[in-house]
UniProtKB/TrEMBL annotation:
<feature type="domain" description="Lipoyl-binding">
    <location>
        <begin position="9"/>
        <end position="84"/>
    </location>
</feature>
<keyword id="KW-0450">Lipoyl</keyword>
<feature type="domain" description="Peripheral subunit-binding (PSBD)">
    <location>
        <begin position="179"/>
        <end position="216"/>
    </location>
</feature>
<dbReference type="GO" id="GO:0016746">
    <property type="term" value="F:acyltransferase activity"/>
</dbReference>
<dbReference type="InterPro" id="IPR004167">
    <property type="entry name" value="PSBD"/>
</dbReference>
<keyword id="KW-0808">Transferase</keyword>
<dbReference type="InterPro" id="IPR050743">
    <property type="entry name" value="2-oxoacid_DH_E2_comp"/>
</dbReference>
<dbReference type="Pfam" id="PF00198">
    <property type="entry name" value="2-oxoacid_dh"/>
</dbReference>
<dbReference type="InterPro" id="IPR001078">
    <property type="entry name" value="2-oxoacid_DH_actylTfrase"/>
</dbReference>
<dbReference type="InterPro" id="IPR000089">
    <property type="entry name" value="Biotin_lipoyl"/>
</dbReference>
<keyword id="KW-0012">Acyltransferase</keyword>
<dbReference type="InterPro" id="IPR011053">
    <property type="entry name" value="Single_hybrid_motif"/>
</dbReference>
<comment type="similarity">
    <text>Belongs to the 2-oxoacid dehydrogenase family.</text>
</comment>
<feature type="region of interest" description="Disordered">
    <location>
        <begin position="91"/>
        <end position="142"/>
    </location>
</feature>
<protein>
    <recommendedName>
        <fullName>Dihydrolipoamide acetyltransferase component of pyruvate dehydrogenase complex</fullName>
        <ecNumber>2.3.1.-</ecNumber>
    </recommendedName>
</protein>
<dbReference type="Pfam" id="PF00364">
    <property type="entry name" value="Biotin_lipoyl"/>
</dbReference>
<dbReference type="InterPro" id="IPR036625">
    <property type="entry name" value="E3-bd_dom_sf"/>
</dbReference>
């Protein structure tokens, strides 16, 4: 590859993702071949089994090649891009200089990340060659790591001249389509849907998930069955009328196979491992939550930030774990030891468009109800938008599962491996209840505790659950631990 005098190329590889993650899928390229990038500028958005994150490049210069199409799954250590940088450092200097920032950590970025530059797209020749590093869809038939892009032979001086003389028209034509979240963009890409053919129903034409789903229904089987190597099909904005003679059997496939990969695959592996390794047991109890609901109403009437019910349940959990620390532990099977934690990193189950995630509230035992409410809200929003980092999804020591939001009373959940227990909370509904010797209508909730029988016996588990129920029924019990 030819470079301008004093220029040389550096190859940036997919960094070690940590947390046992060995591969990632390219969701969206943030730079084009010929773009000028700054040190620590995000260049690609990838999805791992843990989260969707932007990967910053530790080098500054001109992008000369990209490796992999959007949708390609790359292993750690595979090339991502090559960057033409300034003068090559002298031997013995260690090659650091000012070319790069050093470490790259997915999900956390690099140190001292500068403000992102505006992306500048270089005009592509009309003859259309696949040498631009993966712009043609023909190279990604199977979306695996074998799909690579040929480097572009372009001198740095020529790339700089193209940047200076860039026309604004292409930026409008080829720029990103406004979409409410990467999940919606991915849904469209997986079904071969060209987002430029859609008119968003959101503010300022923002494309919502409902818009994509409507277009997919309108396109019918023809759009979803298009080969992966074909260009994006043109999708009508209004549904086409279905012929009266169409047979319902032709519109329903015999079976649908969905690969267990990404977050769905990670969840499947973890649940299966929990069932294989943990001898779990479950106990449950009904509790009168009327006083807890009244206490929350009184708190919120006093002014200040509103306190969520989940935060109060979390506060009860941490108090119960202080009394029964056996449940805040894990089993080291190789050492045949029970490891008890001195801190409580509280996970909570959250259902998102990407599937089930369990964000973790660090040091929940040291937080009050206001702090817990704020952290639950922050992590829930991050889960909804797919921006949770790997560090926010790992390291939990105990999980709180509020399945009552689905309108069910009880459950026997699977323990979040490698933790030792999970508290489940059903819906709170009016039921007949004997209160102070008389039948009354009270707000009743079912509580369940699933625990690893290796860390404790039924007496500890029952004592924990009974204490939680007592705090739900009489919140003043918590005052003993404040």
């Amino acid at each position: 590859m030819a470079h301008a005098p004093g220029m040389h190329s550096l190859e940036f590889k997919l960094p070690d993702l940590g947390e046992g993650l060995t591969e990632a899928e390219i969701v969206r390229w943030l730079v084009e071949v010929g773009d000028l990038v700054a040190i620590d500028q995000p260049v690609v958005e990838v999805e791992t089994a843990k989260a969707m994150v932007e990967v910053p490049c530790p080098y500054g210069g001109v992008v000369t090649a990209r490796f992999g199409e959007e949708g390609t799954e790359l292993p750690v250590g595979a090339p991502l891009i090559t960057v033409a940088v300034g003068e090559k450092p002298a031997a013995g200097t260690g090659g650091t200089g000012t070319e790069g920032s050093g470490n790259v950590l997915v999900g956390y970025g690099t140190s001292e990340a500068p403000a992102r530059r505006r992306r500048v797209r270089q005009e592509r020749p009309l003859s259309g060659a696949s040498a631009t590093g993966g712009q043609s869809g023909a190279g990604a038939a199977n979306g695996r790591a074998a799909a690579t892009a040929a480097p572009v032979n372009a001198q740095a001086t020529g790339a700089a001249a193209a940047v200076d003389g860039q026309s604004g028209g292409l930026a409008t034509e080829d720029g990103p389509v406004p979409v409410i979240s990467p999940l919606v963009r991915r849904l469209a890409r997986q079904n071969g849907l060209d987002l430029r053919e859609l008119t968003g129903s959101g503010p300022d034409g923002l494309i919502l998930r409902a818009d994509v789903e409507y277009a997919l229904r309108a396109a019918g089987q023809g759009a979803t069955a298009a080969p992966a190597a074909e260009p994006h099909p043109r999708v009508p904005q209004a549904p086409s009328p279905v012929p009266a003679s169409a047979s319902p059997a032709t519109a329903v496939p015999a079976e649908i196979r969905t690969p267990l990969k990404g977050i769905r695959g990670a969840v499947a592996d973890k649940l299966a491992r929990s069932r294989r390794e943990i001898p779990d047991a479950t106990c449950w109890v009904d509790a009168d939550a009327t006083e807890l609901m009244r206490a929350r109403t009184a708190m919120n009437a006093a002014g200040g930030p509103k306190i969520s019910l989940l935060a109060l349940l979390a506060r009860i959990c941490t108090a119960a774990l202080a009394r029964f620390p056996e449940l805040n532990s894990t089993v080291d099977a190789e050492a045949r030891e029970v490891v008890r934690f001195g801190h409580v990193h509280l996970g909570f189950a959250a259902q998102t468009d990407r599937g089930l995630v369990v964000p973790v509230v660090r040091d929940a035992h040291a937080r009050d109800a206001e702090s817990l409410t704020a952290e639950f809200a922050r992590l829930t929003e991050a889960g909804r938008t797919g921006t949770l980092t790997p560090g926010e999804l790992t390291g939990g020591t105990f999980t709180l599962n509020n399945y009552g939001v689905f309108g069910v009373d009880g459950s026997t959940p699977i323990i979040n491996h490698p933790e030792a227990a999970m508290l489940g909370v059903g819906r709170i509904v009016p039921k007949p209840w004997v209160h102070e010797g008389e039948l009354a209508v009270r707000q009743v909730v079912q509580l369940s505790l699933t625990f690893d029988h290796r860390v404790c016996d039924g007496g500890v588990a029952g004592g924990f659950l009974r204490y939680v129920a007592d705090c739900v029924e009489q919140p003043a019990v918590l005052l003993r631990t404040l």
